[in-house]
TrEMBL record:
<dbReference type="InterPro" id="IPR052018">
    <property type="entry name" value="PHP_domain"/>
</dbReference>
<protein>
    <recommendedName>
        <fullName>PHP domain protein</fullName>
    </recommendedName>
</protein>
<dbReference type="InterPro" id="IPR016195">
    <property type="entry name" value="Pol/histidinol_Pase-like"/>
</dbReference>
């Protein structure tokens, strides 16, 4: 399966204002469906919807994709921003069933536990954007690492594989475009997607076709 594990259909709409809306507007819904249609057009089998500190869009997208019978599986998620050891870091929660409770000052281990309580997966987003110390302090807290990130690829600093290999990292290795709708991802950004076998995908995220 081809999966994009990191997308933002609502771009920075609520994030920069620190808002956590409880309902989506008509425009929000239109943008989410636009991103899903792009995912289908790009040949993805599944797409994670991971807006900034907001699970609502992903949860709605997953339900709507099922209701409409879209030919793409939606993994509901969000990208959580935490202040960790004097650095801002992002942790992707993938496979959420409900919104997550946390603040930027929730300890990373506690956030990861809350993510796992939902049967979801915690992934360190774009580790190449932080100090190496951040990776080393979080690698055993999370279930996986985003070894490649499309938005970082656009800035020329894409791949964390060499660090993971040198460190003998045994957790999940995922990647995603980090596409911020309606920006159409450049080819190198869209190329940041994960190939995963079906059994592994359904073991992690449940369900089935
Ligand atoms: Zn991020
Ligand atoms: Zn992101």
């Amino acid at each position: 399966m081809l999966i994009d594990f990191h997308t933002h259909p609502l771009n920075h709409r609520y994030y920069y204002d620190g808002l956590r809306p409880e309902t989506l507007t008509a425009r929000d819904r239109e943008d989410i469906l636009g991103l899903l249609a792009l995912g289908v057009e790009r040949g993805l089998d599944a797409i994670a919807v991971t807006d900034h500190d907001l699970a609502l869009s992903g949860l709605w997208a997953a339900a709507e994709a099922r209701r409409l019978g879209l030919p793409i599986i939606v993994v509901a998620g969000c990208e959580c921003e935490l202040y960790h050891n004097r650095e801002w870091v992002h942790i992707l929660a993938l496979g959420l069933k409900a919104p997550l409770e946390y603040t930027p000052y929730t300890p990373a281990a506690e956030l990861a536990a809350r993510i796992r309580d939902q049967g979801a997966v915690a992934v360190l987003a774009h580790p190449m954007a932080y100090s190496l110390a951040a990776y080393h302090s979080l690698k055993t807290v999370v279930d996986g690492v985003e070894f490649r990130n499309g938005a970082q690829a656009r800035r020329g600093a894409a791949d964390f594989t060499a660090v993971l290999d040198a460190d003998g990292y045994r957790g999940l290795r995922l990647c995603g475009s980090d596409c911020h709708w309606p920006d159409k991802p450049a080819p190198e950004q869209w190329a940041a997607r994960t190939e995963m076998n079906e059994a592994e995908f359904f073991r992690l995220f449940g369900g089935g076709r």
